[in-house]
């Protein structure tokens, strides 16, 4: 099993709007690509972050590295572009690929 991990640090003043958009639009669009089996959205509670920032991790579950690589070429660029256009200047993101052992 492969996990596509997206870490997001965002301004607290957009947290509710971002979380609503993620739950109602972005995550369903990612899952509808057919490359992932499921997901979890996790909020960082320790250690506490900067008072003006909040951190989340989104974990997408994928059956193989090949499926993830196909997603990264065929679907990810457009989905990431939508996120960036909507929340430009209010977040930073980094991504990792993990393998369950």
What helical percentage do the residues reach? 25-40%
* CATH architecture level-2 label: 2-Layer Sandwich
The overall average pLDDT, rounded, is 96
CATH topology type: Alpha-Beta Plaits
**Rg result:** 14 Å
- Any idea what the shape is? globular
Ends distance: 8 Å
What layout of secondary structure does this protein have?
Elements: E1 2-11, H1 15-32, E2 38-43, E3 53-62, H2 65-74, H3 76-87, E4 91-99
Antiparallel strand pairs: 1-3, 1-4, 2-3
Helix pairs in contact: 1-3
Short description:
By secondary structure, the protein is α+β, with helices and mostly antiparallel strands.
How does this model look, in words?
There is one protein chain. The chain has 101 residues and is an alpha+beta fold. It has a single domain (2-99), classed as Alpha-Beta Plaits (2-Layer Sandwich), CATH 3.30.70.100. Helices cover 40% and strands 35% of the residues. It is built from three helices and four strands, in the order E-H-E-E-H-H-E. The protein has a four-stranded antiparallel beta sheet. The longest helix is centred in the N-terminal third of the chain and has 18 residues, at 15-32. The protein is globular and about 40 Å long.
